[in-house]
């Protein structure tokens, strides 16, 4: 039985597909920026990450359930978890875009004074609004490289839901430009302990 007070969850992106070209031909260099915010033990945690998928094509299944991308966890998010995702297509060298992103994310988050504002009003709605503000700031800077924003996705999962955090459920976010599916998987401590025990059995002499 999943215990939302103690057990962990992991959020995966199970599908990613761009539905139209943003340059000449079918060639794409998409990347995503992900901002995850949760409230664990009355403390707000916000983390940003990014992933690149160079050499993709329009309508290609860039991510499938067989190669799902871990976006969050395994962690216990506490009262809530929000994910804000921005999908862009890089017009410059995608590795250079990744390096610049590190600086831009830190600058945008600091300028927005996000954590202080979240601490004053620590709700999923405020977390989503502030994450969107940061992503819009990042998008404006990255557009100077002629990188094209393709899609924004904002989603949240609550501990008090039935089932908690919507575990084992898929959410599809789709537009004319792209589609993204997210899945929340339960990672129960008992199953983690079993894995550790098996590992010890394998290595003990």
Report on this model:
By secondary structure, this protein is α+β, with helices and mostly antiparallel strands. It contains 4 helices and 10 strands; from the N terminus they run βββββββαααβββα. The chain has helices at 94-112, 114-120, 124-142, 189-203, and strands at residues 8-18, 27-28, 30-40, 43-52, 56-57, 69-75, 80-89, 148-158, 170-174, 178-187. The strands form 3 sheets. The protein has a 4-stranded antiparallel sheet. Strands 4-3-7-8 form a 4-stranded antiparallel sheet, covered by helices on one side. The chain has a two-stranded antiparallel sheet with strand order 2-5. Strand 3 (30-40) and strand 4 (43-52) form a beta hairpin. Helix 1 (94-112) packs across helix 3. The longest helix has 19 residues, at 94-112. The relative contact order is 0.23. Residues 191-205 have low confidence and may be disordered.
